[in-house]
From TrEMBL:
<feature type="transmembrane region" description="Helical">
    <location>
        <begin position="297"/>
        <end position="317"/>
    </location>
</feature>
<keyword id="KW-0812">Transmembrane</keyword>
<feature type="compositionally biased region" description="Polar residues">
    <location>
        <begin position="1"/>
        <end position="19"/>
    </location>
</feature>
<feature type="transmembrane region" description="Helical">
    <location>
        <begin position="262"/>
        <end position="285"/>
    </location>
</feature>
<feature type="transmembrane region" description="Helical">
    <location>
        <begin position="220"/>
        <end position="242"/>
    </location>
</feature>
<protein>
    <recommendedName>
        <fullName>Aquaporin</fullName>
    </recommendedName>
</protein>
<dbReference type="InterPro" id="IPR000425">
    <property type="entry name" value="MIP"/>
</dbReference>
<keyword id="KW-1133">Transmembrane helix</keyword>
<dbReference type="Pfam" id="PF00230">
    <property type="entry name" value="MIP"/>
</dbReference>
<feature type="transmembrane region" description="Helical">
    <location>
        <begin position="171"/>
        <end position="199"/>
    </location>
</feature>
<dbReference type="InterPro" id="IPR034294">
    <property type="entry name" value="Aquaporin_transptr"/>
</dbReference>
<keyword id="KW-0472">Membrane</keyword>
<keyword id="KW-0813">Transport</keyword>
<dbReference type="GO" id="GO:0015250">
    <property type="term" value="F:water channel activity"/>
</dbReference>
<comment type="similarity">
    <text>Belongs to the MIP/aquaporin (TC 1.A.8) family.</text>
</comment>
<feature type="transmembrane region" description="Helical">
    <location>
        <begin position="344"/>
        <end position="364"/>
    </location>
</feature>
<dbReference type="InterPro" id="IPR023271">
    <property type="entry name" value="Aquaporin-like"/>
</dbReference>
Length: 396
């Protein structure tokens, strides 16, 4: 029995020493499979910014130096009034971990109370002064560039023709070229300065966000001072570049003796300012838009809104350059040329429009986005519940 068993087994040849040296190494053993450690097919519907912010909050104090360095510097504090950000870069007011940050930066979260809005301790924050300095630089660039491409001799424009009206005149062709340029320029500047100061570069936006409870009073004062100073310096640079005081700029001129009264200019300015606030808040400051296009396209849409409103009001009334919609811009133009008697229009109209818009914003606040149907537009991935076990088998 034993001999027959040995006879049926094949003879195994033992490898020699040389064969053992050149033998290929055996593959490593396969790792043990753990179903509980596998990654889910779909991740929770959370944006990358939310995940990074949550991870940072779990490990670091939001006001610590290490946390600020991780956020990219000392000037990256959240700001509810950041134009184009759609309140993506804000903190949760109900989170106890943000209490220390909100004491220093109350407008890091929206819906400020009256006490938080007028908290004067913000004047002692160095970062707010630095943000105002960046606002000065951005306003200076925008006012000079947007006024320079619309500059023309200070002479009354021609009257509309009998056949084509204003469409064949220079005061129509000028805004037709300047409006797209300013729209692109503004969008690029918002991308450039938005992370530091919020990229208002316009007293209308700053006043509008203040009445909408997105900006504190200290930030309002510092930003207005920076914007007005930048506009004045830009006006002096315009005079130096043009080598004359006899010039006018689209959106900042009115010849009363040619049939357009100041009351008409004031009415147009109020309506245009209100429409611009509605558009800017709708595409650049509405938290519900985060799930549609987010902060990546917000600055572009804000630039398109400004360009559209400038072109909409530029050529309808004779001898009127259209709505300014930026008090700092027209203030700088008047510093470089001459102050007319109706220059108050560019300050009173934005204030009236901001108050009215703030009342509507208070009565009908935007609220938080609804994430239930956000996956239908491809912005986020829908949440999926783990598959139930069927027939006693684990789902993989």
């Amino acid at each position: 029995m034993t001999d027959s068993a040995h006879a049926t087994q094949p003879h195994q040849i033992q490898p020699t020493t040389e064969e053992q040296q050149f033998k290929a190494p055996s593959p490593p053993p396969s790792p043990t499979f753990h179903p509980s450690r596998t990654l889910p097919d779909r991740f929770p519907s959370t944006t990358a910014y939310e995940m990074s912010t949550t991870a940072t909050r779990q490990t670091l104090n939001p006001n610590s130096l290490a946390c600020r360095r991780r956020r990219g510097g000392s000037l990256s504090a959240p700001f509810a009034g950041r134009l184009g950000g759609n309140q993506e870069f804000t903190v949760d007011r109900s989170d106890p971990q943000n209490e220390e940050l909100l004491k220093k930066v109350p407008d890091a979260a929206p819906n400020l109370s009256l006490q938080e809005s007028f908290d004067l301790r913000g004047f002692r924050e160095a970062e707010l002064w630095k943000a105002a300095l960046i606002e000065f630089v951005g306003t200076l660039i925008f006012v000079w560039a947007s006024a320079w491409n619309s500059l023309s001799p200070n002479t009354p424009p021609p009257l509309p023709s009998e056949t084509s009206g204003p469409f064949g005149r220079s005061y129509f062709l000028g805004p037709l070229v300047a409006a797209p340029i300013n729209a692109i320029l503004l969008a690029l500047l918002i991308f450039s300065f938005g992370a530091v100061s919020g990229a208002h570069m316009n007293p209308l936006i700053t006043i509008g966000t203040f009445f909408a409870r997105l900006t504190t009073f200290p930030r309002l004062v510092l930003y207005l001072a920076a914007q007005i100073s930048a506009g004045a310096l830009a006006g002096l640079l315009l005079r130096a570049a043009a080598n004359t005081r006899e010039f006018k700029v689209g959106g900042c001129y009115l010849f009363e003796d040619m049939g357009t009264p100041v009351t008409s200019a004031f009415t147009v300015e109020v309506v245009a300012d209100l429409l611009l606030l509605v558009l800017a808040f709708g595409v650049g400051l509405d938290p519900r838009q985060r799930e549609i296009f987010g902060p990546a396209l917000g600055p572009i849409f804000v630039g398109l809104a400004v360009g559209s409103m400038a072109l909409c009001t530029a050529f309808t009334l004779p001898a009127y350059g259209g709505a300014g919609m930026n008090p700092a811009r027209c203030f700088g133009v008047f510093v470089g040329s001459r102050f007319p008697g109706w220059h108050w229009v560019h300050w009173v109209a934005p204030l009236v429009a901001s108050i009215f818009h703030g009342m509507v914003y208070f009565l009908v606040p935007p609220g938080e986005p609804n994430r239930a149907n956000a996956h239908k537009i491809g912005r986020v991935t829908p949440k999926t519940e783990p598959q139930e076990q069927e027939d006693g088998k684990e789902s993989v």
